[in-house]
Amino acid sequence: MLAADPDFTFWVTRESGEQRRNKTRHSATEVRFSGMLGRIDWWNPSQRAPNPATGELWTNPIPFTGYVFLGVGPEGETFETDHLPLTWAEQARDASGNPVPLANGAVADTRVPHLFGNVQGPGLRENPEYYLSDSEDEPYASWRELTLIRAEYARSLGDLAGAIGFVNVLRTFHGLPTISGAHETALLADPDEVRAMLLEEKRRELFSQSARYLATKIQNTDLRWFPRAQGATPFQGYNLQGGVRLGFPADEYTLNPNFAALGDISAVRGSMCDEGQRPRY
Q1: pTM more than 0.85
Q2: Is 76 left (phi over 0), alpha (psi -120 to 50) or beta?
């Protein structure tokens, strides 16, 4: 079975050259046009639109955000309070460029590697160090993603122990702390927290892998930050315009009978934008 083979990966092939190159590698690591962000705490909550799925203002910092210095706790924890991602070091470096470890017992989550250097614009920033060359292939589907799909299916059946077990298979594969002890006991008593844990696991496991995580994001908008046409970065004042840039034409959705059966175009996008906005992914 493919889902039992850690070597299974379906690749999006890349080559050198503008059209076929690995654009994550090119823009983030070679050209260094942009940097990675920590937790999103630079929007004034009173000026943010509420989460359209819940009607409530996003908390500050916004949960489930930040890819810098992610950590895993000694019992497999990936969250602090209120679904703020656990980190193993301060979200800054010392004068020599070294991370400043926190005294929380967490270890670095090696699934989201990054380096520190100059970028165009704000100066020294964290950059993803995921792909080794401009022509490196990108994983489109893999044993790791299939394992997470199996974990999510187990959760949907109420098998919380099974869901945790699949996550621990991945943790062992990466040499990271497994879910155990008091943390495991707490998860087994709270299906909502198992759901949140799986979402965070996907966020880390599928980092920079052919936008695989975006599908999870738009299917869980009650928990996941997915802003629309609001906000600006604190560095250069760029208007996020939804936070994602590529617009899909409406027929990408209306021609799919599974989407069309759900109703009008605003319903099928899964992002609660109004009819006048094109989807941006």
Answers
A1: no
A2: left
